[in-house]
Design brief:
Layout (H helix, E strand, L loop, with lengths): L1 H16 L4 H29 L3 H33 L1 H22 L3
Helix pairs in contact: 1-2, 1-4, 2-3, 3-4
Length: about 110
C-alpha cells in the first residue's frame, strides 16, 4: 500500500514536469491513472485481512465505496482550485498531501 501511495506522488511530480510535452504528459497521466487504480484495488483487497467477520467486511466494502463517491464529488473542485492557484505544482502538493495522509492511515490501521 505504501509503495502505491509513493508511486502516485512520484508520478504526479513527473506529470507536472512534462506538462509542456504533450506526448510525455499523456503517458505520465495514464500511468498516474493506472497507479491510483492500484491504490483503490489494494484498499478493497486488504479488507478481508483487516476484518474478522463477514459483517465487518461488508461494512468495510461499503465504507470504501462511499468514500470513493465522496472523493469523486469533492476531488475535482479541490484539484481545480489548487491548479488555479499554483498551476500544476498545486496539484502535486494536494496529491502528495493526500498520499502522506493515506500512508499514515495505512500505518495506523495495520495489525501488529
Amino acid at each position: 500500500m505504501f509503495l502505491a501511495y509513493v508511486g502516485v506522488a512520484l508520478i504526479t511530480y513527473f506529470v507536472t514536469q512534462f506538462e509542456d510535452s504533450p506526448r510525455y504528459f499523456l503517458l505520465t497521466a495514464l500511468l498516474l491513472l493506472l497507479v491510483s487504480g492500484i491504490v483503490q484495488g489494494t484498499a478493497f483487497a486488504l479488507i478481508p485481512a483487516l476484518s474478522t467477520t463477514e459483517s465487518e467486511q461488508a461494512m468495510g466494502n461499503g465504507a470504501i465505496a462511499q468514500l470513493g463517491n465522496l472523493g469523486v464529488t469533492v476531488g475535482p473542485p479541490i484539484f481545480a482550485y489548487a491548479i488555479d492557484l499554483n498551476g500544476s505544482q498545486g496539484l502535486f502538493f494536494v496529491l502528495t498531501g493526500l498520499c502522506v495522509a493515506g500512508c499514515l492511515v495505512a500505518f495506523i490501521s495495520r495489525r501488529y
